[in-house]
Amino acid sequence: MSTPEDGMTTFLRVEDLHAGYGGAKVLHGVSFSVERGSVCAILGPNGAGKTTLLRALCGMVKVRGSLVLDGDEVAGRTPDSMARLGVAHVPEGRGTFGPLTVAENLRLGAYPRRDRAGVEADLRRVYDYFPILRDKQHDPAGGLSGGQQQMLAIGRALMLRPRMLLLDEPSLGLSPLVTQELFGIVRTINEEEHTTVIVVEQNAHLALSVAHQAHVLETGRIVLSGTAAQIRADEQVTRSYLGYRVQS
User: Fold this and answer.
1) Which ranges carry the ABC transporter domain (predicted)?
2) Alpha-helical segments (H) within the chain
3) In what helix (H) or strand (E) does residue 217 lie, and over which residues does it extend?
């Protein structure tokens, strides 16, 4: 996948977005858009503001500027409100609840929903994506391996039946084999469920292999936008802005 399908429309539009923590400003007038049903990679060096951007999109930090989701202005909404709008966030570090079982963690992801039959169907769907979670559904989440906890975190987000899935460094601390498996599932989720996905990822080569479009952040500003193919092809730009070579 290198470009969105013809006829896609804008699902998320971000304009002049500012965000930070207390007096520390992290995002400085960020503007970009994400097409409906696409995978969008957010790339950039450490400290560029990628995590803060995802937190801004799900209501975790105060923002100034415009966030238009599927035609509605949502800037200033709380995380709970954003979840009810179908925005699911998988934070860096996974954030699973260790003492609870795998099944209990998954059901927590569906807390805003009232369609019991749909929740049960989605639980089966998550187990189909991640069979190891079915095998360990009665085990405490804290006993899972790092890769299994990342699967659980993504599975819990899917229980919301999200319209937009935000993934923050999903490969962090995982083996290359597990990372490839996870990104393959992200691709499948996007293709089968038509879920819009925004992924922050240090492994630019891997992120661009599943993305339709990409935006590069540097010191809180978008410095480059394009299709994944365009970003991959521009080695001089990726060396300058990312600090490493994006493999072909």
Assistant:
1) 12-244
2) 50-57, 79-84, 102-108, 116-129, 131-135, 146-158, 176-193, 204-210, 228-233, 235-242
3) strand 213-218
Residues 158, 102 contacting (CB under 8 angstroms) = no
β 87-90/10-21 pair status = unpaired
Distant-in-sequence, close-in-space partners of 108: CB < 8 Å, separation ≥ 6? 97, 100, 156, 159
With a CB cutoff of 8 Å and minimum separation 6, the contacts of 67 are: 12, 13, 14, 17, 56, 57, 73, 74, 75
Q: Which amino acid is at 120?
A: E
Residues in the chain: 248
pLDDT band for position 233 (cuts 50, 70, 90): confident
Q: Which domains does the chain have, with CATH numbers?
A: 1-83+196-248 (3.40.50.300)
CB contact set of 106 (below 8 Å; sequence gap of 6+): 123, 126, 133, 137, 152, 155, 156, 159
Confidence band, pLDDT 50/70/90 cuts, at residue 141:
very high
Rounded (5°) CA angle 157-161-167: 35
> Which residues fall within 8 angstroms of residue 146, CB to CB, at 6 or more apart?
173, 174, 178
Rounded Cα–Cα distance for residues 7 and 205 (Å): 27
